[in-house]
Design brief:
By secondary structure, the chain is α/β, with parallel strands linked by helices. It has helices at 12-21, 34-40, 50-56, 67-80, 95-107, 121-125, 137-148, 162-190, 195-203, 210-221, 230-247, 254-266, 278-284, and strands at 4-8, 26-30, 59-62, 86-89, 111-114, 117-118, 129-134, 151-158. Helix 8 (162-190) crosses helix 10 (210-221) and helix 11 (230-247) runs antiparallel to helix 12 (254-266).
Length: 289
């Protein structure tokens, strides 16, 4: 099926998704920033308004910072009319918000999928993100050719909101593992231990993980190239914290993790990569860089 696709949001991920989809589908793209629209217009078919994109698309994909932005755009689309259209939220959004938006869109005659991804700008540019999709299974199956153009692996994980439930649970595990590394690497140095030896010994133990091997190495070598900003980690872990509360269950570790991320933001590290959280304890222990 020759879908007419519109993408809203041309940040790092949205631009990469657009480049992949532009090779196979009729694609229109829009960003709220005039400067971004002008810059990206050299390579993509940019439209000047959300209304124009709405008029020219039957599948509208959102690649936005989070739920507040997604909710605003979907509410605007609802006012324009979504009957016969499919909205796909590629953002890392709050699951309960996705569920409510899905209900509204369905009631208005449209269809809604939440389809967050695991990956970065580079994997997105190669069409190799991992996509986890929530919503009606029949809609997912119909749109699978679209997902296959941006993904190396696509999983249908359940009903509305379940895509982002899966995503933030994965992020929670990853972020907490990184926070443990940011706590333990400086502590071992403070205790006079060889941190590279510590890393090697963890690598051969049951405590090892891909996340630990990656971030511990970067922390030891002070490799702080930006891949996943602390501001984003703070937002994503905040969703996990909120979900525990809204479901009415206790999150045993999430509050401690969220507090550490908020401390990093307060100390001016929000725009830094999450690996740089190691500086918090290094500064506290007065360790030399």
């Amino acid at each position: 099926m020759n879908f007419k696709i519109g993408i809203v949001g041309l940040g790092n991920m949205g631009e990469s998704f657009s480049a992949c989809l532009n090779k196979a589908f009729i694609l229109k793209a829009y960003d709220i920033s005039p400067e971004v629209r002008e810059k990206k217009g050299k390579d993509l078919n940019i439209v000047g308004s959300l209304k124009e994109l709405h008029q020219q698309s039957d599948v509208i994909m959102l690649s936005l910072p989070g739920s507040p932005q997604v909710e605003r755009v979907v509410e605007d689309l609802l006012k324009m009319g979504v009957s016969g259209k499919t909205i796909i939220d590629l953002s890392t959004s709050y699951p309960i918000s996705n569920q409510k938006l899905s209900e509204k869109v369905t009631e208005a005659g449209g269809r809604f999928l939440d389809a967050p991804v695991s990956g970065n700008k580079e994997t997105a540019a190669r069409g190799e993100v991992i996509t986890m999709v929530g919503g009606e299974k029949g809609v997912f199956e119909e749109l699978l050719p679209v997902f296959n153009h941006i993904s190396s692996k696509v999983n249908y994980v359940g009903g509305p909101g379940q895509g982002n439930t899966m995503k933030i649970a994965i992020v929670y595990l990853s972020v907490m593992n990184t926070i443990l590394s940011a706590e333990l690497i400086p502590f071992m140095e403070k205790m006079g231990m060889d941190t590279s030896l510590y890393r090697d010994m963890v690598g051969g133990s049951g405590g090892n993980s891909k996340n630990f091997m990656n971030y511990s190495k970067r922390m030891i070598e002070h490799d702080f190239h930006r891949a996943y900003k602390i501001d984003l980690a703070n937002k994503d872990l905040g969703y996990m914290q909120q979900l525990f509360a809204d479901v009415g269950v206790e999150g045993i570790l999430v509050d401690a993790g969220a507090a550490f991320l908020k401390r990093a933001v307060k100390e001016g590290l929000g725009n830094s990569d999450i690996a740089e959280m190691v500086r918090i304890k290094r500064n506290e222990y007065e360790l030399e860089d």
